Amino acid sequence: MKRYLPFIIVALVGLITAGAGTMLYRSRRVPSALVEMPAAELTPNKWLHLRGKADAPVTLEEYGDFQCPPCGTLSEPLNKLEEDYRGRLRLIFRHLPLKNHQHARAAALAAEAAAMQGKFWEMHDILYREQQVWSKAPEVSPLFNSYAGVIGLDVEKFKKDAAGAEAAVRVDADMRRAETLKISTTPTIFINKQLVPPSSLNPQALRSEIDAALQKRATQ
Amino acid sequence: MANNNQTTARSGSRFDLILHILAAVVALLGLADATYLAVQFLTGEAAVCGGSADCSKVLGSSYARIGPVPIAAFGVLAYFAAFTCAVFAAFDYARMRQFFAIVVWTMFAVTLWLLFVQAVLLHAFCRYCLLSAALVFVLAAVVVLRPPAR
User: Fold this and answer.
1) What is the tally of structural domains in chain A?
2) What are phi and psi of A62, to 5 degrees?
3) Among A17, A151, A183, B55, which has the minimal tally of Cβ within 10 Å of its Cβ?
4) Which of B54, B63, B87 is the best substitution to test chain A (most A C-beta atoms within 10 A)?
């Protein structure tokens, strides 16, 4: 029996590791497609942060966290994609500030406060561009206020809105939506309601996904 | 004299056994750590690791993968190999001590590279990677304490 014991131990550990890894993977995997939602939810309104032509055939919907480095890395390429596919692609941003990112919620609230003055995307871009700076700052409000000034916001109104209830309600609504869809990671991207696999979260692969979505639309 | 030699041999054997059981336990911890990181990568959860932005910076970097394969997946294989060798070595499969040393020194070299990447190239540390580095150092210590017989 002792002769076979090491084989049994190794085989058991191998099986347990494979089983535990598979279970963990299944429990954390994002659903492969978005739950069908009323069309109104993707229709431009003051709550929806949309960049690009409103009736573009391809919608790229991102769940992002302003303090998440991969989201920051992807931000500029996404803007470039919107430019390259002008008229055919629209971007939608949804908040998913992760609890473990200290300033992520404050950044989301700042973006919403900017949105109330019609400058969500300007704040979105500057937050990602300056991510390295404010992420490590002990106090982010002075930095966010200065960004508000840079993009031409009424800073006093911005401060009031960022601390107000409406910004929080908007951020919470996106977070609830993410929770409903079992999304817990950032960036999570859907193209025409189809989940983009994590391995495709790079400019080149996203371009291929968009091309495929355009082709699919053309044949429908 | 003969008794003394027997005592030394027996205590050496016990020491070997303890070291290899320790190595097996450490490799198991490393296996769990690497499996967790690999799954995080595959589910796209690099950003939520460890509760720090530094962690996601490391795991989201290009150094965290070779092509589409996460480095952590190689870690899973390496820790499993180390665990296998340690278990067999504990059961007196003498040749496995040599394999164990080869696996551990390879892991040690890769660990040094990854520590360099974190400290110098990324200026950020991932706590799961640091845990893995610490575990590899313990495994290396086991090899140093009981080098494979020639």
Assistant:
1) 2
2) -115, 135
3) A151
4) B87
